[in-house]
Amino acid sequence: GALPHLDESGHARMVDITAKPVTARTATAGARVRMSAEALELLSAGELPKGDALAVARLAGIQAVKKTPDLVPLAHPIAVHGVDVALVPGTQGVDISVTVRTADRTGIEMEALTGASVAALSLIDMIKAVDRSAWIEYVRIDHKSGGRSGEYSRDRR
Amino acid sequence: GALPHLDESGHARMVDITAKPVTARTATAGARVRMSAEALELLSAGELPKGDALAVARLAGIQAVKKTPDLVPLAHPIAVHGVDVALVPGTQGVDISVTVRTADRTGIEMEALTGASVAALSLIDMIKAVDRSAWIEYVRIDHKSGGRSGEYSRDRR
Amino acid sequence: GALPHLDESGHARMVDITAKPVTARTATAGARVRMSAEALELLSAGELPKGDALAVARLAGIQAVKKTPDLVPLAHPIAVHGVDVALVPGTQGVDISVTVRTADRTGIEMEALTGASVAALSLIDMIKAVDRSAWIEYVRIDHKSGGRSGEYSRDRR
Amino acid sequence: GALPHLDESGHARMVDITAKPVTARTATAGARVRMSAEALELLSAGELPKGDALAVARLAGIQAVKKTPDLVPLAHPIAVHGVDVALVPGTQGVDISVTVRTADRTGIEMEALTGASVAALSLIDMIKAVDRSAWIEYVRIDHKSGGRSGEYSRDRR
Amino acid sequence: GALPHLDESGHARMVDITAKPVTARTATAGARVRMSAEALELLSAGELPKGDALAVARLAGIQAVKKTPDLVPLAHPIAVHGVDVALVPGTQGVDISVTVRTADRTGIEMEALTGASVAALSLIDMIKAVDRSAWIEYVRIDHKSGGRSGEYSRDRR
Amino acid sequence: GALPHLDESGHARMVDITAKPVTARTATAGARVRMSAEALELLSAGELPKGDALAVARLAGIQAVKKTPDLVPLAHPIAVHGVDVALVPGTQGVDISVTVRTADRTGIEMEALTGASVAALSLIDMIKAVDRSAWIEYVRIDHKSGGRSGEYSRDRR
Question: Which one from C84, C95, C125, C142 is the annotated catalytic residue?
Answer without folding.
Answer: C125
